[in-house]
Amino acid sequence: MSSEPGHLETAREHHGASRWARACEEYAAGDSETTPLSVEDLECWAEAAQVIGRIDEAIAVLTRSFELWAEAGEVHEATRTAYWLWSAHVFTRGEFAIAAGWVGRAQTLAAERGSDEYGWLLIPRAYVYIGKGDFATAEDLLHRATELGLGRGDIDLITVATTMRGRATLKLGSLEDGLALLDAAMVRILTRATSPRTTSVMYCAAIGSCYEVQEIARAAEWSVALDQWLGTLPQLGGAYFGNCRIYRAILMRLRGDWSRAQEELEQACRDLAVDGQLVAGHAWYELGELRRLQGRPGVEEAFERATAFGHSAQPGLALYRLSQGNTQAADAGLRRVLAERQQADERLLLLPAVMEVCLASGRIDEANDVIIEMAKTARTYPTTAMRAILDAARGALALSEDRPAAALAGLRAASDRWRELGAVYETAQVGVRIAMGCRALGDDEGARMELRAALATFERLGASPDASLTRGLMSDQNAHFAVLSPREMEVLRLIVTGSTNAEIAALLALSERTIHRHVSNILTKLGVRSRTAAAAFAVHHGLT
Q: Which of 233, 423, 459, 509 is deepest in the core (most CB within 10 A)?
């Protein structure tokens, strides 16, 4: 039976034109007990409701759709609907038990029909194994799901399975093979061969997988394509598009459009507040990071909300504590999360922050250990960004060891790589350290030019903490101490007060051996021979 032609035809037209809110209204108006919608129209209605975040409505319609497919004996279609019910419950509500119930019903239906091997049912199983860290089993399941999708000609199934297989392959440490799978999936997405809900979810999954292994070039390219696709759609909210906003904002931050990135993240946090449990934490974390870089209030609030939604506040919180001078809290937070994470791709996101804390604490031996781990990770994931991170870390360590020439080689390589990626903030950050290397070699003019360039970038971005630090480095007073690390400056101030090495060690919660090394570095860098001379130099040049 068919419903009122006017409503149904209008609903289909709105759905085809991506006017999903209007489509939902018309499908609802055309549906009644006497003239219920066909299962095909129910599927379209459910999709429209799902992509705009009307999750209760989507679940209700998907439930009807599943029952109709099951009654008709269309097992493949029923399992597909069960997958989208699973997705709605897991990714928007965090309702894992209910989601598993729908998968179980579909498996029972499939078994009753003589087979339990349906591609859509393998996707939730693969997610379970990914969550356990068994990426090899997940990859096998997703490979089989892809084959079943090819046999059915189901483009959505092929794309979902291939995208997730690409992520599992990356987790197994195979960069080339993993990216090839993601590329294959993205070809289908970019040519608009996939349904809207598959398009939105898999765009974000592929981009997120790239960021996990620092494949920023691909992530940026696909983020541009995502932005173009979103530009063809009406202004939308909900969990699916809220997740898209996060990755669009990450690209904006990378490319230097921080004001728009902030707007996108704030909107994403609103969109994901109710039906977006598993991704809301990511939005709050990225907003906290942006606020930290801008020196805006609300950093701790954002990180606390990220934590409440199940997303780690690290490494952003540690870097925030480091900026407040609380090195001990920064170190403790990073040590704890490093102990929890054993996967190389998960640890690599933390290592740059660990490096900063080690250098600020004067723990050179530990910094060297971090470099060794970074280098190992870079061999597994030899992306441009990973090499930039490694080069920058090596340069920063060389500066701390008073090897400015070696430092500049690494820092300039890092700068070139960040420029290649269009990462304006990271380029400016490295530029400040290049200036320190130039100054240590006596090239004050080169240092001033690097600092002016970095300051211009920080001011344009609104990176207030970095801008303030850079202005300080450009002042005549601080020029005398620019060769010293922040920790060495702390030690020098305590030397001025007359504190002994043992007293300084106790105050800074460091070993006497570490303090002795700091004092030795200070004397060498300032060109003096004794603690007394260092104190006199500091007082003469206005250190307070």
A: 423
